[in-house]
């Protein structure tokens, strides 16, 4: 069990900068999720921690030890790959045993450790099968078992659930979280799926274009997004971002009018979450563009002159297309962003 | 309503030209359709039959006769019974096994070792084709080069003397094993690249994520090779080595040019034995019988190896 420290880490590939001046402190036993769109540098960051990539500049420490020049095989980290990366020529038992053999764990202990790891991921009956004879979910559990069997200092997981179907993903999510709590191993988890990030993480690091946008607990990131990128990335559907102007305590845009802090002026972007809007009110006037009932909730899209606004309406809500509608916002949950995209008007 | 009518009209307009296109094609008879594929592969098949099957069958037929040019006299299995009692035949078989076996082992080991050390090298990735160079030489040219280097030109002897390994000129044809060695060296030089290209291709095609997973599991490159790459390459290795092995059993050019079977028949391979029987001593029926036996032996060995390798690979 160990903390991880990244200090001024830069990774460039030729002229392309994959990770820019990154500072990150992962606390011992923490479950940290790196979240961002494709190509944001999250996987590169994880690969640097694993030792599969070498930072161009900066320091990487695991525990207190400087890792920059330590080979991947000597770092005592275990990684779960997106494509499982099981050894196809070995049975699942041999797959799980491989790290024990390579790290010279006494042979007498192997069987016990393997069976315990397999039990943890409920893979007991499949130990003598080859990876090719298992389903995607079973393969992913085998990969997990291989990672946990030798009790490493750090777990790294690179989008481990993205090859699974939605139902399986949900159950594996719970399993991973439970397992991490039980084993108390510092974990770094890479994903582009915000639901995974929100449900699993102790803290989330949101990245874009190689730069950290915000670090915080899931609650924090949801309720206090630092900029329009984070606001537009988190939430399902994500926060509505409406460009407009602020003048003497009022924000206005086509069809939208809300109070704003008096010190704001000029071009401002208003952020309002779909769940903080109610049908009826005087903050937004527009036409119904789409109504999508899903059973427990109805998604309503309202068209204004500039933009479509997403709203979560009650499960019973129905309205004809193109009918006029007015919407009220929960004015205590409004977010304002300046021209550079960063949050403004916060006390 | 107006909307839907429009779509219907559009659909109809689309369907019309499509129908026209179909009607342009002349309907083909069912027999013509069936024959077409055979017509395409026909010439190639005929060509192959003419140069392999016909001579093969002819050799089998001829092996049942004692042939002295135009005089054919029925011998039944006489040629075969004579052959199995012929010491020279068994010697040639042993020579083929020894020279071919050693050469094949060396080629496989060298090709695999080089492939292992360089398969992730960017130069080898981009330019692996240049390693095929020795294979592009005409086999007889290669044989003459090595003949020059070993025997006539004494290049190898001079080099060995220069580095102090030997003090006198080596006569490579004076000893059984030295003569065999020259054949092995020539074959290894020309044909190791063939195995190398296949092995390096297989290693390069290996999933890099698996290598990374093994690295993190604590494996060295050697561990990865022995535990993962090698077992996974098994079918490829078997096929490549079998192909090379079949090729080696017909080794002729080098023997003909470099040693002519000397000293004392120690380098006479099966092909050279058959050639000598057929074209020096004009025992055509006898040579044909030897060819048929050699073919049978090769098929049985190759079939057994491939079958076994793939069976255990599957389970």
UniProtKB/TrEMBL annotation, chain A:
It is found in: Cell inner membrane. SUPFAM superfamilies: MOP-like, P-loop containing nucleoside triphosphate hydrolases. Its main location: membrane. The keyword Glycoprotein does not apply. SMART domains: AAA. GO terms for molecular function: ABC-type transporter activity; ATP binding; ATP hydrolysis activity. It is a peripheral membrane protein. Pfam families: ABC_tran (PF00005), OB_MalK (PF17912). One of its GO terms (biological process) is carbohydrate transport. Keywords: ATP-binding, Cell membrane, Membrane, Nucleotide-binding, Plasmid, Translocase, Transport. PANTHER family: MALTODEXTRIN IMPORT ATP-BINDING PROTEIN MSMX, TREHALOSE IMPORT ATP-BINDING PROTEIN SUGC. Belongs to the ABC transporter superfamily. This is sn-glycerol-3-phosphate import ATP-binding protein UgpC. It comes from Sinorhizobium americanum. The gene is ugpC.
